[in-house]
Design goal:
This protein is an alpha/beta fold and 307 residues long. It contains 9 helices and 10 strands. This is DUF58 domain-containing protein.
Length: 307
């Protein structure tokens, strides 16, 4: 499993594809033993699968009044009810951040590479469970929108596009075409219909009040898992000396006072994101790029976790 750990400044396609083996036995959803032949496999911690419209029929005693089709009722002068069926596949959208701020690393790999490797691993697990895989990848030129599909090739297609977006990164300088996190979340609200699950992987460097509002609106009708990625240097400045970092091809010397101010700002933002997730009932995970991925996913999403 160590050979599957992310490394370097850019993703390696063979490494992303190889995560398929490591994804066996993983599940984003807490599972249970079905109590009947018709029981679903997903526990109630996350909402059920999305509902699809089936038909309209005359109202019957006991029907939920919230399902009354008022247009048909007005046209026929008799109450009619909408019927829905549960989707057989849960749509899961992977929101993976590949914007310029993710193009940074002080240890084994850049944040962008770590996020891509985690996204690839989890997308394989969703595909293996028979659920739909879609993607909303934020990158240097905007947002790559891939609608959720149930095909076994959906995860493969997402990973190829993720690899392409990663290799568009050239420097930490922001692009005029980049989407903000708030805009990205607004795109997600439009793309994910009620009942879908969103997996958001980002460093949240541009988190603000608008992001919190959008996330709250998403969580009303969907389920969200948040993975906040950071570099160890962002959290803690080692030692008391200056450190030279690259920014846009130029070396910038950061003194300890400036670095510690940066650390405080990072901590305040991280705590704000975590607190928001706690208020909204969102599963939140904080990872730095030095955290081995394989043990992490086994601990939180392995088969033993869901027994």
């Amino acid at each position: 499993m160590d050979t599957l750990e992310p490394k370097g400044a850019y993703t390696e396609l063979p490494l992303l594809l190889a995560t398929r083996q490591a994804a066996k036995g993983l599940s984003l959803f807490h599972r249970r033993q079905p109590r009947s032949a018709l029981a679903g496999g997903h526990a109630s911690r996350l909402r059920g699968r999305g509902m699809e419209f089936a038909e309209v029929r005359p109202y019957q005693p006991g029907d939920d009044v919230r399902s009354i089709d008022w247009r048909v009722t007005a046209r026929t002068q008799k109450p009619h009810t909408k019927l829905f069926v549960e989707e057989r596949q849960r749509p899961v959208f992977f929101m993976i951040d590949q914007r310029a701020a993710m193009f940074f690393g002080s240890r084994r790999c850049f944040k962008s590479v770590y996020a891509a490797q985690l996204g690839a691993l989890l997308s394989w697990s969703v595909s293996a469970s028979g659920d739909k895989v879609g993607g909303l990848i934020a990158h240097a030129s905007g947002v790559q929108d891939d609608r959720a599909q149930g095909s076994q090739h959906a995860a493969l297609a997402l990973i190829h596009r993720l690899h392409q977006c990663n290799h568009q990164l050239h420097s930490p300088t922001a692009s005029d075409q980049e989407s903000s996190l708030a805009s990205w979340l607004s795109d997600a609200r439009r793309a994910a219909k009620p009942g879908a699950t969103l997996v958001l992987i980002s460093d949240f460097h541009d988190w603000d009040a608008d992001c919190e509002k959008s996330l709250a609106l998403i969580q009303r009708h969907n389920d969200t898992l948040v993975f906040q990625i950071h570099d160890p240097l962002e959290r803690h400045w080692p030692g008391d000396g200056e450190l030279s970092v690259s920014a846009g091809g130029e070396a910038i010397a950061l003194n300890p006072a400036l670095a510690k101010t940066f650390n405080r700002h990072w901590l305040a933002r991280q705590q704000a994101v975590e607190a928001c997730c706690a208020r909204l009932g969102i599963r939140y995970y904080l990872l730095d790029t030095a955290t081995p991925l394989a043990p992490f996913v086994q601990q939180h999403f392995g088969s033993r976790t869901h027994r």
